[in-house]
Here is the input.
Amino acid sequence: MVIVIQCTDGVGLVAAISKVLANEECNIVSMREHVDQEENKFFARIVAENVTDPVGIEERLTKVLPANAIVKVNPLPEKNIVVLVTREYHCLSDILTRNHFKTLGAKVKCVIGNHPDLMNITKRFDIPFHLVSHENKSRETFENDLMQLISPYKPDYLVLAKFMRILSPGFISAFNMKIINIHHSFLPAFTGANPYRKAYIRGVKIIGATAHFVTSDLDEGPIITQQIIPVNHSFTLQDMVKAGRENETAALAKAMQLVFEDRVFVYNNKTVVFD
Amino acid sequence: MVIVIQCTDGVGLVAAISKVLANEECNIVSMREHVDQEENKFFARIVAENVTDPVGIEERLTKVLPANAIVKVNPLPEKNIVVLVTREYHCLSDILTRNHFKTLGAKVKCVIGNHPDLMNITKRFDIPFHLVSHENKSRETFENDLMQLISPYKPDYLVLAKFMRILSPGFISAFNMKIINIHHSFLPAFTGANPYRKAYIRGVKIIGATAHFVTSDLDEGPIITQQIIPVNHSFTLQDMVKAGRENETAALAKAMQLVFEDRVFVYNNKTVVFD
Amino acid sequence: MVIVIQCTDGVGLVAAISKVLANEECNIVSMREHVDQEENKFFARIVAENVTDPVGIEERLTKVLPANAIVKVNPLPEKNIVVLVTREYHCLSDILTRNHFKTLGAKVKCVIGNHPDLMNITKRFDIPFHLVSHENKSRETFENDLMQLISPYKPDYLVLAKFMRILSPGFISAFNMKIINIHHSFLPAFTGANPYRKAYIRGVKIIGATAHFVTSDLDEGPIITQQIIPVNHSFTLQDMVKAGRENETAALAKAMQLVFEDRVFVYNNKTVVFD
Amino acid sequence: MVIVIQCTDGVGLVAAISKVLANEECNIVSMREHVDQEENKFFARIVAENVTDPVGIEERLTKVLPANAIVKVNPLPEKNIVVLVTREYHCLSDILTRNHFKTLGAKVKCVIGNHPDLMNITKRFDIPFHLVSHENKSRETFENDLMQLISPYKPDYLVLAKFMRILSPGFISAFNMKIINIHHSFLPAFTGANPYRKAYIRGVKIIGATAHFVTSDLDEGPIITQQIIPVNHSFTLQDMVKAGRENETAALAKAMQLVFEDRVFVYNNKTVVFD
Here is the structure.
């Protein structure tokens, strides 16, 4: 069973936490702990065995920790997610496959596309696909339409699997640190649109992909993971896009795994990742 | 023997080049060729055996190629370089070691520092060290002092091995595409000063180093090679700097090898690298 | 249009080849050439534009090259493949997805499994699935059954996507250098069965995957590509297997791309790969 | 201050350890903990601040831990090492440079070579070099000569920086898990002599280097770290050796850093590495 803790740092935190667990005869199988000394923040992820009373342990941990502590014992063992897409298939296909074979660590409740292109592949996996066009609509109306569709699913996370619309701060704040995006560049290089074109023109020798939480500050949210691939002069722009796809798929898959296994903590627009 | 060619593209270039070589009974051991179709540029690097008349071949190749062709048969087999440094030892030590064991592919004529810190290590390898302080001097005077020291050595390349002064366009133009710099970030992310601090604050998961030719446009010159290393939340700023050093050393070493072996072609602020 | 050539080395080969192309007014867009000097072998892959008479060019190239030359102008632009599987889904799903979106560079004619587990996913993509059990059968009968199913499809390549049966030399010789396998280790480390278990026990810090052509010498065929991922003490055997899956999928995908784009030449139990 | 602990696993270990530290008002800055459940072993590395009584803490920790516990509070902050070499300079030069600039995390007491080739570079750094030829000598005599030279330096570790002699079990047992070797292959592939030749003949696409502790079982000791570099058909054997050197240097440097910072635990012919 997983236990995650995030609070102000202080002397004796590990002792207090581990004493609670020892009193319950829980065995600590693995423990990752991090203190950000500049920010005076404490983070821990514990895998414990023999946890018979998770609710009780959560209460007892909360009592021995600083007032602001966030404690979760056995946070949702399987998350529900809604996936937003536009036209590119690679990230979505990977998600659908993992979902189908139950290796995603989450359950895809539905896929929403602002184009119909990916309806076919989604339906092949018996997952509902909703088409919500953004055309001839204000952003507000578009996002209201999205929200109405999403809400009944009560998703734990939204995954933007190459969803090419910019979301408003209002929409984002409704899913604070619950929206995972894959950006097709090695952020903070090449923010904004057309990163592959920019990379191509700049003549870089490595291109990247960045999975991050979405905040109202475009492309500036906390980074979960980054991956890279080498490129060279023989790559046309189209080759870069193609090579980048593999990289995007892998980076998003990795980020989802980390988040769904409760390995990622957010603070100060950064992440602590116990991988 | 190495032959490098750069010219406007056209039908029959490879035939024309290889016919010249075949007529001389030269054997082509390896040939790398690239055409940038957007720019209509042709690049080739040929390793040939049995080249008895390099000067004659260069003439005959020039005759069969477009007027603007740059042709070099057996370009300087060993380059002379001058290394500029400030205080950090890691890149310089690596250069001095390779120079000492004759695996650098170039000969270090001297090291120039704007601080005395690296005089000791340089002298241990019997290489001249010149101290040229930038203090209490205009940039013009500083660069004149540098130039006076450098000129007699007639270097083929200047290597900025963590040289922390910005050079003026005038100085740079005197060594057009002959100055190799190592920038301690994954350009174009984190241009300018303190890239590690910026990377630390941004919470990136990978940091990079970029070896590039210096142009008057700061940190915007043609990229020769880039290397990366993963980092995580446990890295303090100081840890990032430390880890980055290994990366910088490796990237600069790789770039020097590529340049000194005549594997790098520059055009359009990009490079073609036949690695 | 792609042109591939493999023959004994000699002076003037590139000249002879490029002259043929120049005479036809073909433009060489890119050319990769390699000579194995120990073995006296010549390999070239040319991408040419403006090829109006491929059959004629193949004839003219054959005439100017040594007697043993293998020349292919525009080798099958799209290959047909048959995929053999057992129970693990990850490589097959990736192949089916790429096939579905026409980014595989080949067409999957059918999938053959010795277990029924992957019938469902295959059918979701409207690809025929044939179950050929190996149980209660001699290897000869099993392979005859396979062969009868495969033959009508006339595949250019067989892809073993985690097919866990050993094939006999007889079967393999019927598809000489036409069977691509993914081995779940960094060959030649951990040949044979259970490589992850062996890697786990040995305490390695990196695990690999190797895509190779199958020869009668088990796990000893020519290597097409290898990929690795870091592991550490926290990985259980099961974690290694799971992490390895991503690696296997990526390595096999890369190998297929290289082979299907005619970038791979085999000789002497090695490959030349113009990637 | 670093605290390392290795013992049989049990319920309440982390609680017991952290209570001791909390009682002393020590703050736990970072804690890495691992349990091998199959082997029932517990490992921890703690960085604590405000440790005023290390000897007392070591005693108190020992009291609350299982009988077989190995506990070290502030293990030698700077290790002493003796470096053994043969002829290749790359690893030694790197060690000497880091030692000179005090970034090795250890102090090089002397270098011993069985050939004189590296005497010059060693002396440039003012480090004693001892020549101990193995010629015209039994292995026993050779190792006695080595031992007599090494003993007075009381080294914490011996580093074999491309030392090309096989050491006897007797010699090795005198430095149990204290000898760090760099093997120029991706173990367990290509054990024994001439790994690059074997890799070249096999046509691998990646070559590796393995830093490991030396045991009497040649090339079979616990692996500390492994690194790899891609190679391809264009690499001659000599190119592989040259490329491999960079890799060996980097892998050995990394392994030394990990060991000297007390991040490596050995058990069961494997390592736990808290990197």
